[in-house]
Amino acid sequence: MESETQPMGRRVAYWRQRRGMSQQVFADRIGKSKSWVDKIERGVRRLDKYSVITELAEALSVDAGQLLGREPKRRPGLGGCLDQVEVESIRQSLERYERLGRFLEAAPIDSTPIPELRGAVNYCWLAFEKGHYPVVARSLIQLLRDTPVAEDRPVGGTSADAAELMTQVYQIASTVLRKLGEAQLAWLAADRAISAANRGNDPLLAGIATTRVANALRALGRYQAALDLNVQVAHGLISETGGEASSPAEISVYGTLLLQGAMAAALAGDATTSADLLDSASRAANILGRDANYYYTSFGPTNVMLHRAAAFVELGEGADALAVHDRIPPAALADLVAERRAHHHLDMSRACVQVGDIAMAGRHLVTADRNAPSEIRCRPLAIELIDQILHRTKGEPAQDMRRLAEEVGALN
């Protein structure tokens, strides 16, 4: 099973074997000797040139990132994305403990009224759903400062109310940081989200916070841990509600846990478990009966299909992913929030690369950029994909794709 914790040579061997190629066939395809391939796979020879890695990825019909085992560092400050200063400000906000001010001899901070904080948190969620990550970052820096103080000295509400707002702030922070490739910070924020949720009175917030922890674990390469956590909490939620999730909100949280578990299973190479969890999520979505957005989950039948397609991409089955995409009603996709639509088109671009349809891969990326530019311009995964599409394009890229590449600094 391919894993991000394995050396790159073993990942090459994993995908070569999965594609049904012998070392000799693979060597012939990339113009190398069988001995060269064998040394790469055994770790005797290092892969330290990106051009060679992309060549191997092309021959294996995978993303270069699947061989690298990690997302590359983003290019800061390009395309209206967050720069390192903003990320560092979020880091500092996560590392501060305003509630300990009286012990740290810090000046007391005025407590923001909870109704005002609730409005600010809702605004931050809306900015996230539109894919306006720089706006989200600026909001987070202030909210990460204000919500701990509000829990300690609540005005216009209770400490539990403030804790529930705080867990949402940490969840947004974790999700955005993960997208930016800041996996360790994402895990820290998600862990804080769990703690804050447990101090509130809404158990469903703890369920959603679990998905953030699990997603951070996925970003750190701990796929099995992410899978187990999502499934265990989903089962616990059902147990607490008497064997079935009865309210639309409960169904949405339960289904979202199953979807994230399915993605973790796919990343672990467990296609059977991934499919089983997706089928369970589909049944929950059918009970819900529509696409909804309880707890900002976007859960419903359409989002299940998006995750089914995304799982196929992580399994390296691009053709199956594109077949699922073709079955998604365009109107239903258009009704989802911009971040979800852009994320899906990014996944479909990866699927197109896997099947060798480079022109269509570029069109999906351009569509994603039109829906939510930051989802493409801020994510290392997307920047790497742009590089790969340019590398594999024969002749000049399409005008829209060339413009996108220029705007993110992918063209010299």
Verbal overview:
The chain is mostly helical and 412 residues long. The chain has 4 domains: 8-68, lambda repressor-like DNA-binding domains (434 Repressor (Amino-terminal Domain)); 83-215, no CATH class; 221-335, Serine Threonine Protein Phosphatase 5, Tetratricopeptide repeat (Alpha Horseshoe), CATH 1.25.40; 337-411, no CATH class. The chain has helices at 8-18, 23-30, 34-42, 50-60, 64-68, 84-95, 114-129, 133-152, 159-179, 183-198, 203-219, 223-240, 248-267, 271-288, 301-314, 318-327, 330-335, 338-355, 358-371, 373-377, 380-392, 399-407. The longest helix has 21 residues, at 159-179. It is globular, with a radius of gyration of 22 Å. 51% of the residues are buried. The model is unreliable at 1-5, 71-79 and 100-105 (pLDDT under 50). This is Helix-turn-helix transcriptional regulator. InterPro entries: Cro/C1-type_HTH (IPR001387), Lambda_DNA-bd_dom_sf (IPR010982). GO terms for molecular function: DNA binding. Residues 12-67 form the HTH cro/C1-type domain. Pfam families: HTH_31.
Supply the key terms.
412 residues, mainly alpha, Serine Threonine Protein Phosphatase 5, Tetratricopeptide repeat, 4 domains, 71% helix, disordered N terminus, Lambda_DNA-bd_dom_sf, Cro/C1-type_HTH, DNA binding
Encode the helix/strand succession as letters.
HHHHHHHHHHHHHHHHHHHHHH
Task: Give start-end ranges of low-pLDDT stretches.
Answer: 1-5, 71-79, 100-105
Provide a count of the helices.
Answer: 22
Count every beta strand, where a strand is a DSSP E run of 2 or more residues: 0
What fraction, in percent, of the residue positions are helical? Answer: over 70%
pLDDT averaged over residues: 88
- How many domains is the backbone divided into? 4
Biggest sheet overview: none
Structural class: mainly alpha
Over the alpha carbons, how many angstroms does the gyration radius reach? 22 Å
Shape: globular
Which band does the percent of strand residues land in? under 5%
Distance between the termini: 38 Å
Domain HTH cro/C1-type: 12-67
InterPro entries: Cro/C1-type_HTH, Lambda_DNA-bd_dom_sf
Protein name: Helix-turn-helix transcriptional regulator
Pfam families: HTH_31 (PF13560)
